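Minutes, project huddle
Topic: does the predicted pose make sense with CA2 bound?
PN asked that the exact inputs be recorded in the minutes so nobody has to dig through chat later. Recorded below.
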Amino acid sequence: MAMPPDQTIYVLNGPNLNMLGTREPDTYGHATLADVEKLCAEAAAQFGLTACCRQSNHEGQLIDFIHEAHAKKACGIIINAAAYSHTSIALHDALKAVNIPTVEVHISNIHARESFRHHSFTAMAAFATLSGFGIDGYRLAINGLAAKIGAKAKA
Ligand code: CA2
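Predicted holo structure (tokens), as shared on screen:
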């Protein structure tokens, strides 16, 4: 029987995350965005999924990536919208509009930080949030997403 084509998950990272590994290691660790994207590709591949990784410092571009995920029939979204998590009703609306199973990730524990980080608009459009696991949160999010959509680990 023919195998189904690889399914794609979108991994979206927001403003300043291109700076990972260069500053604030006490908060965000030493890994770079390239390390995060490699980790995501490997975690997704364990379930026969392809990770399409995108980063932008611009709110509208992140909205366009969410629309692109819809157009490409992505089976899931992992999003760390960084500071836009706490401000962007537009990103919340985009995630609600495409109705793709979404997990929000934060590298740091946003609830142990300043009160302005405690609320997330994007989390309200996600079925789960991981916060405070460092970059391993992305791997955990992909595992959780795979379970949610019924993607099985490859032997
Ligand atoms: O903990 C997270 O993943 C955050 O989404 C990171 C955001 C912050 O605004 C959120 O409250 C929590 C900030 C990303 C900035 O990333 C940098 C990494 C290294 C150096 C400078 C910035």
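Observations noted during the meeting:
- Residues 16-17, 19-20, 22-24, 28, 80, 82-83, 85, 106-108, 110, 117 surround CA2 (CB under 6 Å).
- The first helix runs from residue 25 to 28.
No decisions taken; revisit at the next huddle.
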